[in-house]
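(Deposited chain)
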Amino acid sequence: MKIAFLSGGAREQALRYILERGENVCAVLTPLLKESNRRFEKVILSAIEYGVPVFPVTRESVKEVLSEIKPDIIVSCGFPYIVDQSVISLARYAINVHPTLLPKYRGYRSGPYILINGEQESGVTVHFITPEMDRGDILIQRKFPVSPFDTTASMYRKSQEIEPTCLYEALSLLKSGEVTTQPQNEEEASEYLHLRTPVDSQIDPQRSLTELFNEIRACDPESYPAYFYHENEKVCIKIWRPEKSAIDQDMI
């Protein structure tokens, strides 16, 4: 089956994994590469390495490009554009890879809220694409434990470690024709569409550190560290464990 791989994030691991296992990726579609989105450059370079045509697209040109390619399977993996019904209908299957346990934490920027809310597990979900974002029936879902010392960086790493196998397993099911899905339970659903900015890292110094711990570790200590104001001066917070194990890598 011909696969069109749609990506706009740093998802080269998933792409390389399925290519190395012989999947017929006929095209990679990404947004136009700009200085502000260099994070998915490795997807483009990986496609070029394997001889897969790359199509830079705008939101409006996705349908036109896919109409020419005629894929059997559309894979959205970190793709920033909404795939509407006119695009979905161009392929036999259209699936999305989402880095949370749907129906919880729908949305493009939901990751930090897993930490803020003190969740004890997260994972990756592969689901069918519908016109409503992150609401299609679930094809594959795999979990991993969330440590009290996880950060946004370690959560991203953990999801990337299992995402390639989840996608490959989903593709294998689609090709076999033995597809069993699970509808999403709307009673368990949550959605986070707010793109966090540095101002979201401001904390209330009147609360205890124990109460604030999850909020602090959900802030990127380099790009948008947690902070508060003391005598009108901004004070940033960085937390770490001096005896952290080497295997904890990018955790606190």
